[in-house]
Amino acid sequence: MKLSKRILRSTFSQNLIARLISSYISFVRNTVRWQEVIPDETRKYLDGDSNIIGCFWHARMIMMFNAWKDSDRSKFHMLISAHRDGRVIAKSIENLGFNTVEGSSRRGGATALVNLKRTLEKGCAIGITPDGPKGPRMRAKIGAIKAAQMTGRPILPVTGTVANRKVFNSWDRFVLPAPFTKGIIIWGTPIYVERNASKEQQEAYRLELENQLNELTHMADQSFGQDLIQPDPLPASETSDANT
């Protein structure tokens, strides 16, 4: 067994790593000068009950904790994988005053949808990384669309970046924001999924979410003159289908 796996299996190590992560996120939240861009049709949800499905790419996760007001932290639930890495992230999120919902599109997807439905029906907000936990990068899976279909709640795409950052060579090109810099959070427009949406309509909504998130993410990066991070290439079969 690798040493890193042994460390992550230790409850003490998990708690320590989670504390370091949450402390850094708080440091960034408090030292970055944030600007927020919110369309009028989206603002009414953020200023109201915030009973929405927020979707953002896995790589932008750290910035997204600045997208929710401090007063709304207890109402925000982040969908987290049951894997041991997910447990560390869950502890980090809970240290910040947010809540989590356990589930994964790869493992127990149906259970995750039930948990999301129950959470939304309580009037809470859900955060989903539609390309997580392992990609492909910046390609949306169908889970958020099904959650919106089951509950009637809108999906709100959101993204962000900072002027000074480190981009890792990971599958998602994870963005680590630096403190004491400028940052931006950009919200998209609501996506409403019909209750009786067919598989073809679900795919159209999924593509709308993916396109919105990629456009918003490129807009955020362009605001600081940064190199654009591109989505993983589509499989050859999907590319050929799109050209027919």
Summarize the structure.
The protein is α/β, with parallel strands linked by helices and 244 residues long.
List the helices and strands and how they pair.
Blueprint lengths: L2 H7 L1 H21 L1 E5 L2 H8 L5 E3 L5 H4 L11 E5 L3 H12 L3 E4 L6 H13 L3 E4 L14 H9 L3 E8 L2 E3 L7 E3 L4 E6 L11 H25 L12 H7 L2
Parallel strand pairs: 1-9, 2-5, 2-6, 3-4, 3-5
Antiparallel strand pairs: 6-9, 7-8
Care to describe what's here?
With about 240 residues, the protein is an alpha/beta fold. About 45% of the residues lie in helices and about 15% in strands. The chain contains 9 helices and 9 strands. The protein has helices spanning about 5-10, 10-30, 40-45, 60-65, 85-95, 110-120, 145-150, 200-225, 235-240; strands at about 35, 55, 75-80, 100, 125-130, 155-160, 165, 175, 180-185. The chain has a 7-stranded mixed beta sheet with strand order 1-9-6-2-5-3-4, sandwiched between helices. Helix 2 (about 10-30) crosses helix 5 (about 85-95) and helix 6 packs across helix 7 (about 145-150).
Stretches where pLDDT falls below 50 for ≥5 residues? none
Number-wise, the strands total: 9
What is the helix content? 40-55%
Sheet with most strands: 7 strands, mixed
Structural class: alpha/beta
Overall body shape: globular
In spatial order, strands of the major sheet run 1-9-6-2-5-3-4
Order of SSEs? HHEHEHEHEHEHEEEEHH
Distance between the termini: 48 Å
Supply Rg: 18 Å
Mean pLDDT: 88
Number of helices: 9
Tell me what portion of residues adopts beta-strand conformation: 15-25%
